[in-house]
Structures are given as structure tokens and as C-alpha cells.
Amino acid sequence: MEDHHRTPSLTVRPLEGGRGVRAAGEIGLATHTIWERALEQAVREGEAVYQLELSEVTFVDVAGTGALAAAAGRLGEGRRFVVRRPPPALCRVLETFWPGLSTIEVSMS
Questions:
Q1: Under a CB-based contact definition with an 8 Å cutoff, are residues 38 and 23 in contact?
Q2: Is the separation of the CB atoms in 43 and 71 below 8 Å?
Q3: Domain boundaries, the chain
Q4: E strand or H helix at 94, and its extent?
Q5: What is the separation, in whole angstroms, between the first and last Cα of the chain?
Q6: Which of 23, 27, 62, 99 has the most CB within a 10 Å radius?
Q7: CA torsion 60→64→65→71, rounded to 10°?
Q8: Nearest Cα residue to 67 out of 106, 26, 107, 28
Q9: Structural class in CATH, domain 10-79+88-107
Q10: Are 99 and 63 in contact (CB under 8 A)?
Q11: How far apart are CA 13 and CA 96, in angstroms?
Q12: Tens digits of per-residue pLDDT, 53-91?
């Protein structure tokens, strides 16, 4: 039987061999602070291309996707996030609320 009383968790660690981070867990109300800190760090680092590896993220809520879109909006000219293997919900929410956002590239590979 599943334990529904566990606290959702999110871990964010540096990406091996590249500029960016690998996130694992859930991006929701309980983990927004961690997610927003990781995005702030990404904006500050100033890399032209910053990888967000999300293949181990099981859930992203609308606010988490909004935080990503807002951070992408602060990247500045010629910079972008490459979001790798995100949960399908993230792609749907981006396409619905932030269509054609040129600072986020989704890669399924």
C-alpha cells in the first residue's frame, strides 16, 4: 500500500560534464523553493545554454512550470534553457500558457 503522508521531495544536483542541473522528484507546492533557487542560480550563471535534465522528475505543477517560464524570461539575449526529457505535463502547460517561448528548448533525447 502506498504511503500518502510522505512529503514530496526534489533534489537538484550539478549535471556531470555540462552546464546545468539534474533534478529528481516532484516540483510542487512543497518543493517550489528548491526549484526556484535552482532556476535563479541558472539565470545568474550566465551560460548561453543551460541544461535542465528532468528525466527523473515525476511531476511538475503549473506554478513550477510558471517559475521556469519566468526564469527563462530573465535570461537575456541569446541565452536559453534546454529542458531534457521533462514529464509530459510540463510540455502541455508550456504549450498552453507560454506558446513559442524561444528561451526554452525541449529535448526528448
A1: yes
A2: yes
A3: 10-79+88-107
A4: helix 88-97
A5: 34
A6: 27
A7: -140
A8: 28
A9: alpha beta
A10: no
A11: 29
A12: 999 999 999 999 999 999 999 999 999 999 999 999 999
